[in-house]
Amino acid sequence: MKTFQKIISTIVPLPIENVDTDQIIPARFLKATTREGFGKNLFRDWRYEHDDENKPKKDFVLNNPLFKGEILAAEKNFGCGSSREHAAWALADYGFRVVVSSFFADIFRNNALNNFILPVTVSESFLGQVFDEVQRNPKTEIEVDLPKQTIKILSTGASEQFEINLYKKECLINGYDDIDYLLNLKDKIEEYEGTR
Amino acid sequence: MILEENNMSKTLLDKIWDGHVVYSKPGYPDVLYIDAHFIHEVTSPQAFDGLRERNIPVFRIKQTHATADHNVPTLNQHLPIREELSRRQVEMLTKNCKDFGIELYGLGHPFNGIVHIIGPELGITLPGMTIVCGDSHTSTHGAFGTIAFGIGTSQVEQVLATQCTLQYKPKRMKIEINGKLRKGVVSKDIILYIISQISSSGATGYFVEYAGESIRNLSMEARMTICNMSIEMGARGGLIAPDETTFNYIKGREFAPKGNDWDEALAYWKTLYSDKDAVFDKVLQFDAADIEPMITYGTNPGMGMGITKRIPSLSEVEGHDRKSFRKALDYMALEDGISLLGKPIDYVFIGSCTNSRIEDLRMVASFVKGKKKADNVQVWIVPGSKQVEKQAREEGIQAIFEAAGFQLRGPGCSACLGMNEDKIPAGKYCVSTSNRNFEGRQGPNARTFLTSPLTAAAAAITGKITDVREYL
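^ Those are the sequences you sent over. The predicted structure of the assembly is below.
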């Protein structure tokens, strides 16, 4: 069972705004009928020249051996566009467990949470500090503590509180998913249908 | 007393939402009942697998409607799909529908088409409903006064299993447009204009109600185009209060209520409006007279402008946004500060859930009648459904397109998303009536200009970006 408590990890910085789900996983890779294997096509067209896995684009962060980790940091409006949950599956399959941004698109945020990826919304200034710090030292580590709802840059000690709704917090910590919650309410759903 | 009355005032969103809450608990999301669930081949297979793993059936088969649209070729639809993975995904949908007892309007079915075209066209989409689909453009259905929004596959599974989804109520935004639209300006221009004003994230967290005289005067097809693109400014969805235009559109459609059921439904639908004193979290107002035919120049739908305007100069862009502005123009191979008028293009795509309804095709046909396309462009016209295709043939629209050198293809999502055979080649410019100009959206390295069908038609004839008003 997947759960989420606290992680400490280095960061992969992607200082780009409006990262849409077509960039995270282009539509031509949505043809699989399982949830696995999307990671190899994560950011496919930013990652490779002419769609060729033998030609990695050197300036793209996933191809830079200096930057590794379970935390992706990106600029505002991360995950805008299509509702494809494949975007969350691709991030998870690649190994990301947290995305830090100053602003997430709604559907993506839900999809991420449903896949035990934690979207952490921080202030623009804190995000700026994250990018600065990781540029200065790619080994910079960040601690994300879900029970305490805090994010901390370990080298500087700078930290911030983040918001998450109580329900989803419980789901992540305990490994529950929405469908269990809904299936337990079946009687209420049938009762509701009877009143219409 | 007055206070009490004010407290009872509700927005349209609240009226529909509150009527669909099965259960709520403080701190927890509402359990929202879903009246109609549309599914397609891309975002459903993993959801059906989930049901199999839990060994549970689809809870309400009759409220689940299936079509194949994203992967389908738009030529030779009678032949097996050539691309293996696409074919497998469509076959998987067929199998899942058969195993779980869901009716499927698959390839070749007279009701087949893009999910957001067929729902309204068949009279499945009705005012006051809650509608979801694993597709962000589900907001289209909001044109009928419904709460309609896109969901991910985990939520598709939840709705299949329980006919409910867990949702926090979004904030309410009202966007009012008043005044008369100018010549050559259509509903696509209205929504591209709004997005250009508030940005591609300007409505994130909100559900938008579109109101005002300019909206009231629009046909249902035109209203659907507006609601369709609500997601492009980040909104969960968009909706428009139903009125006589709505009721006239629905009456007589395949699955619309008939006889006594119609009368009862109509009486309910007439209660669906935001009360006069209803409070919105945000209200924006625009003047229709300020809108000219629009075009996007960048790589998100917020990067749009009036067709006679210049792309902003780098110096006019705020410091913080400069990086993404420059990245977008690099991708588009455009310079800052220039006008796009006269820019040669390679493809014109008229289609997608935004603009592939019969009214869109009629608009294009009336403009191109007696004209021929420019030699340098390929023009693809992709109807939204089998029914639209049939109607286009019967009304003589197909003949007009053929005479103009346009290709009328079979229905599907086509070149909107670069998933099926219809892709725009790398480096080529496409004037497109679809909804997203993201990098690679229409194919790796394809470059997209979003416009209305009318502006796209003008580009098809001249072979370059054109102010359609010069030809009206």
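Chain B touches chain A through 65 residues (CB under 8 Å). Residues 250 and 379 of chain B are 32 Å apart (CA to CA).

Shout if you want it in another format.
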